[in-house]
């Protein structure tokens, strides 16, 4: 059995034309078969057929030339941000007006002449710390009788500085038992007296007692008899050693 060739695919335009032709043929058969059809009926039928044919022709033209049609595009629905409506279950943000700070003009560049010179590290004064000057230690003295004679004796007082700082001044006071006793031959000091109290102060050679050193004062007591040793001896108010009270 020979195969039946495939029928060509009918388009929409062909289908519409076939229907229009079939409708026109059917209407003609109905109207020609009736004898009581008036002229107005014929006019109405012909007008309807004309409208139908014109519509079919327009549809066919559109279907054959779709590129001539201007596509109609629909705008997408506005987003949530454009409409200004907060999405569900989301707290609505409060719109705040924008604030723009006023423009501040930039300061003019400083010239080299207007910039004050800065003090360099070498020209800045170095702060000095006030240091307390060390004080001299209390002096000590040692009294000794070195030469006994019939009516006189010799005496030596050694003044010692136990500290490391030199002592610039000192005062030695020797109290004799009687005002009638005199002092002579003083070396290493200058002597003066008030009754039986004799005061010795440094002279040019013994004016300063170096640290950890000593100076010596010698003199002779005249008119003395047995038991005429000094009653007291002090150096800057401190009792001398070597005297038995």
Strand order of the largest sheet: 5-6-3-8-9
Residue share in helix = 10-25%
**What is the overall shape?**
rod-shaped
Q: Helices and strands: which structural class? A: alpha+beta
Give me the count of strands.
Answer: 9
Structure at a glance:
This protein has three helices and nine strands. By secondary structure, it is of the alpha+beta class. The chain has a five-stranded antiparallel sheet with strand order 5-6-3-8-9, with no helix packed on it. A four-stranded antiparallel sheet has the order 1-2-7-4, with no helix packed on it.
Describe this structure in words.
- This protein has 245 residues and is of the alpha+beta class.
- It contains three helices and nine strands; from the N terminus they run αααβββββββββ.
- It has helices at residues 12-33, 39-64, 80-83, and strands spanning 140-148, 152-161, 172-175, 182-187, 190-194, 197-201, 213-222, 232-235, 238-239.
- The protein has a five-stranded antiparallel beta sheet, with no helix packed on it. Strands 1-2-7-4 form a four-stranded antiparallel beta sheet, with no helix packed on it.
- Strand 1 and strand 2 (152-161) form a beta hairpin.
- Helix 1 runs antiparallel to helix 2.
- The relative contact order is 0.11.
- The model has no long low-confidence stretch (mean pLDDT 75).
């Amino acid at each position: 059995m020979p195969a039946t060739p495939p029928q060509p695919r009918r388009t929409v335009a062909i289908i519409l034309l076939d229907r229009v032709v079939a409708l026109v043929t059917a209407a003609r058969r109905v109207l020609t078969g009736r004898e009581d059809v008036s002229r107005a009926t014929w006019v109405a039928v012909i007008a309807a057929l004309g409208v139908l044919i014109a519509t079919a022709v327009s549809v066919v033209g559109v279907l054959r030339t779709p590129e001539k049609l201007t596509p109609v595009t629909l705008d997408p629905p506005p987003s949530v941000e454009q409409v200004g409506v907060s999405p569900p279950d989301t707290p609505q943000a409060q719109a705040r007006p924008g604030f723009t700070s006023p423009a501040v003009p930039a300061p003019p560049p400083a010239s080299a002449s207007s910039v004050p010179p800065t003090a360099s590290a070498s020209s800045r004064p170095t702060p000095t710390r006030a240091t307390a000057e060390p004080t001299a230690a209390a002096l000590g003295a040692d009294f000794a009788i070195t030469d006994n004679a019939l009516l006189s004796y010799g005496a030596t007082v050694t003044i010692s500085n136990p500290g490391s700082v030199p002592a610039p001044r000192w005062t030695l006071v020797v109290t004799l038992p009687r005002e009638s006793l005199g002092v002579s031959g003083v070396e290493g000091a200058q002597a003066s007296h008030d009754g039986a109290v004799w005061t010795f102060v440094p002279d040019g050679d013994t004016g300063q007692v170096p640290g950890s050193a000593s100076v010596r004062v010698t003199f002779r007591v005249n008119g003395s008899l047995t038991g005429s040793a000094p009653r007291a001896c002090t150096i800057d108010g401190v009792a001398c050693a070597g005297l038995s009270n």
